[in-house]
Input
Amino acid sequence: MQKTSVLFLVLLLFSLFFLPIHATPILLSEGKSVTGSSYYNSGSEVFPYSKIVDGRYNDTGTGYDWSFWLTPNSSSAYAVIDLGNVYSLSRFEVQNTHNRVHNDRGTKDFRISVSADGINYTSVVSTTLAAVWGLNPIPIETFHISSYQARYVRFDIDTWYGNGGGINELSVYGEAANVPESESLLLALTGLLATLGLKISRKNSIKK
Output
């Protein structure tokens, strides 16, 4: 009976080790700090990259407080979101722009790269956003990646529709980074088994 209990515990611990339980990804980017290369400023209106994490959609707002980022005319640009900590990233949601009723701008080809240190980046998405001119609400496109640990998320606009690029929102989803290492788990398992074995040996000795 004692051997059966030990075997059950071993199987349970190994199932936990090989089949980790992952939390539901949460929104990590809203309200976070954003830096970037450039944005459109007409003099009477501005469209800074900080707007891509303000939680607002569909080209809404007024003069100096629009919900979207626009690049300067006919210019590539990038924006970098600092999530504040390293997370395991799994999904991005992007809402393009058409510049309100003007329908003269929007992002076409883009890249998303991630980094743990803000220096060395790895490209995880490189594709094309659909033109959204005349659409309201503007559709949101979703891009899944294999879990990647990073703190910084960089969005590069390479080509555009009309006069320039831009987006309404870049939503980054993920969960807390995996801290325990396999070596630590194995050591804990070994220690537990050794303790159980010692207890069983002592009980057998007392019975004799």
Summary: The first helix runs from residue 2 to 18. The chain has two helices and twelve strands. The helical segments are 2-18, 182-207. Residues 1-20+181-208 form one domain.
